[in-house]
Fold this sequence. Notes:
- The chain contains ten helices and seven strands.
- The radius of gyration is 19 Å and the shape is globular.
- Strand 6, helix 8 and strand 7 (276-281) form a beta-alpha-beta unit.
- By secondary structure, the protein is α/β, with parallel strands linked by helices.
- The longest helix is centred in the last third of the chain and has 21 residues, at 291-311.
- 44% of the residues are buried.
Amino acid sequence: MKFRFGDGRDWFFNKRFGLFIHWGLYSIDEWHEQMQYRRSIPRKEYEKLINRFNPVDFDPDKWLDIAEETGMEYICFTAKHIDGFCMWDTKQTDYNVMNSPYGKDILGMLADACHRRSFPLCIYYSAVDNHHPNYPNQGRPYELQRPEEGDEPDLNKYMNFLREQVRELCTQYGEIHGCWWDAGDILGIRDDSINKMIRTLQPKAVINNRGFSDGDFDTPERDWYSFVEEDAWFAKPTEACQSIGMESWGYRVEEDYYADRYIMQSIDKIMAKGGNYLLNVGPMANGEFSSEALAILKNIGKWYKTVKESFENAIPEIGRASCRERV
Length: 327
């Protein structure tokens, strides 16, 4: 039997190519979306970036125009990355875009554009938060090495904060088509109630496998997962993610970009095995895509539109386990 959920989430099997967006305060210094973590920047120093965030050239319709020209049919946007800065009008913390010089709800603007154009919107949310005073930083991956001055580590309080933020994302922006968790495994928590809340509030939303309980689909990243190469097809719904740049997912001024052909071959491999493909671009601090990103997407779009038909309905009837039993 082919992959199907049998409900509103089945949009995921018809729209196979998506645009991933990593964008936040880190775009200002043009280095890496994990800049605070990787450079061990004290929170009081890093959070000053909020005073410089003013993406006056941000136009969500331009983003969607580019996505459609590339052949993409949905978008996944980073509402909050590990630095804890929120790209929406959240009431749970002052560390959000409304308190930057820009002062506008970026996620709200993008959601409005998506709804006008019937373009599915998925939302990325990092469970790790380097800014929240209740987050229990212990030096695990993507965390600060230790709590900072004024922190009051309290996992229960932080999880309540997280739940309320997810509730906002699921109730303030109309219909949402996906929740893309990241780093949920760092905290070592198994709690299905959060995904259940998402499913109740947003029944068409697909949920990935990086949260606090099993999700709807696997998320192999870059070229780090051997089964992507070894298996002839995917045993369960899968969405591979890749960035156009080798070093960063956020905007990097001296980025080493993958060759167009490499990305095309990667898309071909994933889709032929029944998976979706989420290709990332990191916008510049002003809200626009770099000239390098635009050139790459233009070339991929020309190619993808000539081959898209061959990937339609390429959803396997038997999965990875059966494949291994045959070899």
